[in-house]
Specification:
heterodimer, A: 725 residues, alpha+beta, Phosphoribosyl-aminoimidazole Synthetase, Chain A, domain 2, 7-stranded mixed sheet, 27 helices, B: 208 residues, alpha/beta, Rossmann fold, 9-stranded mixed sheet, two-stranded antiparallel sheet, 5 helices, 22% helix
Chain lengths: 725, 208
């Protein structure tokens, strides 16, 4: 029997992990148990290389209602309402099959949110692909965008924002991170802990099939490489209609108070949802696989336990209420079956009829996986490539047009027009209208803003500073719409943590995340970790995607990012001292290298607070943060958005020591480009640099001064769609 | 007027339509299995993906018990408004002429655009993947001759390749109207525009 690789290694367990399982069981696991252990002890489920690092993150805050460990984090938005949110990766499935990978990424994150009793109200996406000139990248982009639209549009949840970057290191291993926000009455939120010995365990939603078997271990917890085609059966297939019914059904069940607890089935299917519910409640669970509705009658118990068939939820129900639960499921035409019971004794038992086919302590299965320390080592210098696509020494006008047309900077209208951004009647600022999406909450009498960011290239240059910048950029985006941060969630997309360089990147990034959140006073309410993102060429850019949710009292006072009126003054605000390090211009010139200046976190936080107050007072006509492509690109974006030209002089940046190129195209945290009444801007302490109007963008910047027609700037910035057609 | 908004499994915009109707009168949801419209005097068939729309859009919803009642209401001259998926359902049910095909781009499109109604321009969003209005040429000629084309996309703004820029049509009697754009998402200046209310108001006055 022992010819070839031992089975536990095929399933991704190390020899020592296998020995630990034998020790905890007091015997060798059978096939069912081994399959279950291999999934729950995978990186994807156990966070075994990241859990220790994540303890650095600040998670406490007076508005936090649910923190890490729940299906989603939740913050208090007032008037008895809570906003729940979470971001999760679906990188490897999307790299293998982008349409279904991205679609089920959206489906999965929606379930996480309605599992706590919140109605999903918005989706955002953070996507990374290789360069646009790669056929593979265009294929992955097209499939992922279609997949996100397919699921989100069909289920009727607005996709209100997101970001897309194109960088060579994502060529093989694209990133698809999906975020969902939901709204709940605080009193009706539900936790995922099983409780009440003797209570019934009810499986709701789709029938269980052979799709997605081993997704968490085979696909999500190992590097991509040769033979990925053979992994297609590990990708799940999404059915948004099934989920739409399941969503309405679950919300009705919770509203009627019929459930004790609720949990979605995601990675590792029944194994993880049952195991985690039992662990959280300190109880045991019996599950009878013979009672699980199947798509194929001949499925083995281990297949049923690890299937990642989509659109399923697990509920704990008091016996007297099972009939009422089944009736609501019947109304919504969603499947439901009582498949087990809550037990005492802390064992999870898998039965087939009366036969026990697996039995293990919940503590060993869910919490017994060893946690590993990383062995980080800082690599020497720049470990990624450089490709020159823009000669240095060309005219500043041509540099601006090249940057505006850069796929990572250019308008993403091609993508977001494929998403329903208005369903739900909450979207006050649609994609590209402002720096953050703004959703009104008539129930709570206010509005929320949300932004998702993470520039992997800058994190690659300096994992600590780059991650701090990502948090600051979120905070800056929220400040632009007058929102005060309530909480942050994140998805840490990194390479193989068992290798020293990615381990070092991860270690430094988590420290940056922790320090920035602490300095801003923004608690981390949840997160997700996606490791082993590597291709044959090596690791991806380290990519912490951070998403921040904030609150604003009056959505009618939100500033847009576009210039509004000719004659308005244009001003620069914030502690902004840009450099070319890690910038889009440095990338195009093939001059990337290690190192970024340290962000001035305290000063940026103070600027955000001051700007927030000014926006709330209605003192500004527009507010836009300066990010990719520097001040010149920010200026062009505000001008194009408003259909108005602009004339500015960057002398104030020159006085801060910036070269003309740095003043135009340098990047770094802390910069805002504002417009409005001159006196109001000066009261804020912003430095007036010019005026809105005309049909050209004129920037005085010493020997790099430039004048570009608004029409040619717009045509460069809007060129993405034509390059994808 | 009492408005009823149908709710199918897979409907997406029914709550938004309900809110829009509530700005004009009393409004309630009508469950797809209900043969009784619960006293509703006007019906909105809302947007979404009824029954998943995995078959042709609207092809299953037309057989629902609630749609039988809607057909009776329409025959009796009661106002019926089909929005997006609702327009598709009404065409499938034979209450409106023509059909909605896949967008020319073969992609879903969500965009604020301008419609031309009775001598007025309305700013209203579209969001659909199957919104290309199609009918045989002679039917299109008849529709135009009888004034049954009630909404067109403004010149240059046709988002889906619809024949003759048609965004919405009505039946001969004038009490059944269908359109692809979403007036229920244009009832508040905060979320874009209030022009959508004019679509509801026009229908409310259109009792045949």
């Amino acid at each position: 029997m022992t010819v070839g690789t031992p089975k536990h290694r095929e399933l991704g367990l190390t020899d020592s992990e296998f020995e630990l399982i034998v020790e905890q069981l007091g015997r060798e696991p059978n096939d069912v148990e081994l399959a279950m252990f291999s999934l729950l002890w995978s990186e994807h489920c156990a966070y075994k290389h990241s859990r220790k690092l994540l303890r650095r993150l600040p998670t406490e805050g007076e508005r936090v209602l649910m923190g890490p460990g729940e299906n989603a984090g939740a913050v208090d938005v007032g008037n008895g309402y809570a906003v729940a949110f979470k971001v999760e990766s679906h990188n490897h499935p999307s790299a293998v099959e982008p349409f279904q990978g991205a679609a089920t990424g959206v489906g999965g994150i929606l379930r996480d949110v309605f599992a706590i009793g919140a109605r999903p109200i918005a989706i955002l996406d953070s996507l990374r692909f290789g360069e646009l000139d790669s056929v593979r990248s265009r294929h992955l982009l097209d499939g992922a965008v279609r997949g996100i639209g397919h699921y989100g549009n069909s289920i009727g949840v607005a996709t209100v924002g997101g970001e897309i970057y194109f960088e060579e290191p994502y060529e093989h291993n694209c990133l698809v991170n999906a975020m969902c926000l939901g709204l709940a009455k605080t009193s009706e939120m539900v936790r995922a802990a099983a409780a009440g010995v003797g209570n019934a365990v009810v499986l709701m939603g789709a029938a269980t099939g052979r799709d997605g078997i081993g997704g968490a271990s085979v696909l999500a917890s190992a590097e991509l490489g040769e033979g990925d085609e053979a992994k297609r059966p590990t990708v799940q297939i999404g059915d948004p209609f099934e989920e739409s019914k399941l969503l309405e059904c679950c919300l009705e069940l919770l509203e009627k108070g019929l459930l004790v607890s609720l949990q979605d089935l995601g990675a590792a299917g029944l194994t993880s949802s049952a195991g985690e519910m039992a662990s959280a409640g300190g109880v045991g669970i019996d599950l009878d696989v013979a009672k699980v509705p199947l798509r194929e009658a001949d499925m083995e118990p281990f297949e049923i336990m690890v299937s990642e068939s989509q659109e399923r939820m697990l509920a704990v129900v008091e016996p007297a209420r099972v009939a009422a639960v089944l009736a609501v499921c019947e109304k919504w035409q969603t499947g439901a079956a009582e498949i087990g019971a809550v037990t005492d004794g802390g064992q999870i038992r898998i039965l087939r009829g009366t036969d026990v086919v697996g039995e293990m302590p919940v503590a060993a299965l869910v919490d017994g996986c060893p946690l590993y320390d990383l062995e980080p080592a800082e690599p020497e210098g720049w470990i990624y490539g450089n490709r020159t696509t823009l000669a240095s020494g060309i005219a500043a006008e041509d540099e601006l047009l090249a940057l505006l047309a850069a796929p990572s900077i250019a308008s993403k209208r091609w993508a977001f027009e494929q998403y329903d951004s208005v369903v739900g009647s909450r979207t006050v600022r649609r994609p590209e209208a402002a720096d953050a999406a703004v959703l009104r909450l008539p129930e709570a009498g206010n509005a929320i803003a949300v932004s998702i960011d993470g520039n992997g290239r800058r994190v690659a240059c300096d994992p600590y500073a780059g991650t701090v910048e990502a948090v600051l950029e979120c905070a800056q985006n929220l400040a632009c719409v007058g929102a005060e941060p309530l909480g942050l969630t994140n998805c840490l997309n990194f390479g193989n943590p068992e290798k020293p360089a990615p381990a070092w990147q991860l270690d430094r990034a988590v420290s940056g995340l922790a320090d920035a959140c602490t300095a801003l006073g923004v608690p981390v309410v949840g997160g997700n970790v996606s490791l082993y993102n590597e291709g044959p060429e090596g690791p991806i850019y380290p990519t912490p995607v951070v998403a921040m949710v904030g609150e604003l009292p009056d959505p009618a006072r939100v500033a847009g990012s576009a210039f509004a009126t000719a004659g308005d003054a244009i001003a620069l605000f914030g502690p902004f001292s840009p450099t070319l390090a890690g910038s889009e211009l440095a990338k195009q010139r093939g001059e990337l290298g290690a190192g970024l200046p340290a962000p001035e976190v305290e000063q940026v936080a103070a600027a955000c607070a001051a700007l927030r107050d000014a926006v709330r007072a209605g003192a500004l006509a527009s507010a836009h943060d300066v990010s990719d492509g520097g001040l010149a690109c920010a200026l062009a974006e505000s001008a194009i958005g408003g259909g108005l030209g602009a004339r500015v002089d960057l002398a104030p940046l020159r006085e801060r020591g910036c070269s003309p190129a740095e003043a135009l195209f340098g990047e770094g945290a802390g910069g805002f480009l504002l417009s409005g009444d001159r006196a109001g801007l000066e009261r804020l302490g912003a430095v007036v640099i010019g005026e809105v109007g005309g049909t050209t963008i004129e920037i005085a910047a010493g020997d790099r001064s430039l004048t570009v027609g608004l029409a040619s700037a717009a045509s460069a910035w809007r060129s993405l769609g034509s390059r994808l057609a | 007027m009492i408005w009823g908004v149908l709710q199918f499994p897979g409907s997406c915009d029914e709550r938004d339509a309900l809110h829009a109707c509530s700005l004009l009168g009393e409004a309630r949801l009508v469950w797809h299995e209900d043969r009784d419209l619960g006293g509703a005097e006007a019906i909105v068939v809302p947007g979404g993906f009824s029954y998943g729309d995995y078959l042709r859009a609207g092809a299953i919803a037309r057989f629902s018990p609630a749609m039988e009642a809607v057909a009776e209401l329409a025959a009796a001259g009661g106002p019926v408004l089909g929005i997006c998926n609702g327009f598709q359902v009404l065409c499938e049910a034979g209450l409106l002429p023509g059909a909605l095909l896949l967008n020319e781009s073969l992609r879903f499109v969500c965009r604020q655009l301008e419609l031309i109604g009775d001598d007025e321009r309305l700013s209203i969003p579209v969001k659909h993947g199957e919104g290309r209005y199609w009918a045989p040429e002679e039917v299109l000629d008849e529709l135009e001759a009888r004034g049954q084309v009630v909404y067109r996309y403004a010149p240059g703004q046709n988002p889906n390749g619809s024949a003759r820029d048609i965004a919405g049509v009505r039946n001969e009697a004038g009490n059944v109207v269908g359109l692809m754009p979403h007036p229920e998402h244009a009832v508040d200046p905060l979320t874009g525009s209030t022009d959508g209310l004019k679509v509801f108001e026009a229908l409310a006055g259109a009792r045949a």
